[in-house]
Amino acid sequence: MTTVPSSDVDHLLDGFETVETVEDFHARLKLGRPLNVKLGIDPTSPDLHLGFMVVLHKLQRFAEAGHNVTLIIGDFTASIGDPSGRNAMRPPLTSEQIEANMQTYREQAGKVLDLERVKVRYNSEWLGKMNFSDVVRMVSHVTVAQMLERNDFNNRYEGGTPISLHEFLYPVAQAADSIAIESDVELGGTDQLFNLLLGRQFQREYGQLPQICATVPLLVGLDGERKMSKSLNNYVGIAENAHTQFGKLMSMPDELMPTYARLAAFRSQSEADALAGQIASGSSNPIELKKQLAQDIVGRYHGAAEALGARDFFERTVQRKEIPLDDVPEMEQGDAKTVAQLLVKAGFAESKRAAERLISQNGVKVDGIVVNDPRASWTATEPAVLSVGSRNFKRVLPLR
């Protein structure tokens, strides 16, 4: 029987908010075999953000320790819709949306995961083969009262918000994933704890060892209030360019820096605590601390050179308010005749009316000069820099 050094166990469990249970985890390691470690993610959008990377980093740690790690892409469960942590039903996705989103997931997850060490599976492999009798047999192992113990379901029930029966099937389907791969450990965010524990219960019912449930904290978004979410526009996308990532990270509240150091830059708890001490004592300039933190995070997804370039771009354009002479994406003027039309074409405004509103708010510049007239014509005969705020720049190439 193999005994795992306590230091290795501490390393594997470091950073988890809940482990159900630590004693079971120690006992499972003593079985003397690699553990089956599982994480499921649903392809609910085309892009991942920093919040997803928190748990992926933990999954990578198990892979590096030699355990059998499986990343389950929930192509089937995404068609049900996961309401976890929500007060309303998450709409199910179409097969076309799921397929389009799945194409980007592997590439983005590979920024943190060594996919050569990780097995990627799709839960349609087993869920798609189940018949109605299989489903009835599974749901017989759980009660409505149990389902209503979950906070989001209970809140909706108490508030009179409808709960569709198919939503109860989501945690059951997630439990089926655990049974299918005989999971020893399942990872997830704190909002997934109910689902993970249900998988633990179902495994007992199906004669398997109950999985250990390990959850990570949810990364707070850039607003400093709610969890990071694309729908809340408080996120940093993995696929975003280095300049955008860096600029977004510089907008976070100072008090959020230790959290991002721990969960997004993957620094140790002692390093995060030391950063919190520097901020509290005022011994270091918080702007400089934030720039270094942003550089570290961006470097993980774009490399050290691009991260340094993004920092330099921020310092020139935001701090020193210089008009950038390089590193600015170009666009053709095309048939656009006004500044407002170019704002829409550049993607800086959703509509002509929104563009004119930006101009009225003195938020638009051409070569550093504020545009005051919402109906201003584009008169530049040479390449000129169109900017909105301190981070959005496009060099407009005139008609030839």
Question: Topology of this protein?
Answer:
Layout: H1 6-13, E1 18-20, H2 22-29, E2 36-41, H3 50-64, E3 68-73, H4 95-109, E4 118-122, H5 124-127, H6 132-139, H7 144-147, H8 151-159, H9 165-181, E5 185-189, H10 193-205, E6 212-216, H11 242-249, H12 257-263, H13 269-281, H14 286-302, H15 304-319, E7 330-332, H16 339-345, H17 352-360, E8 364-366, E9 369-370, E10 384-388, E11 392-397
Parallel strand pairs: 2-3, 2-5, 3-4, 5-6, 7-11
Antiparallel strand pairs: 1-6, 8-9, 8-10, 10-11
Account of the 3D structure:
- It is globular and about 75 Å long.
- It has a 6-stranded mixed sheet, sandwiched between helices.
- The protein has helices spanning 6-13, 22-29, 50-64, 95-109, 124-127, 132-139, 144-147, 151-159, 165-181, 193-205, 242-249, 257-263, 269-281, 286-302, 304-319, 339-345, 352-360; strands at residues 18-20, 36-41, 68-73, 118-122, 185-189, 212-216, 330-332, 364-366, 369-370, 384-388, 392-397.
- With 400 residues, it is of the alpha/beta class.
- The termini are far apart.
- The chain is built from 17 helices and 11 strands.
Structure summarized in a few sentences:
44% of the residues lie in helices and 12% in strands.
The average pLDDT score comes to: 88
Largest sheet: 6 strands, mixed
Q: Share of helix among residues?
A: 40-55%
Order of helices and strands: HEHEHEHEHHHHHEHEHHHHHEHHEEEE
The helix/strand class is: alpha/beta
Shape: globular
Strand numbers in spatial order across the main sheet:
1-6-5-2-3-4
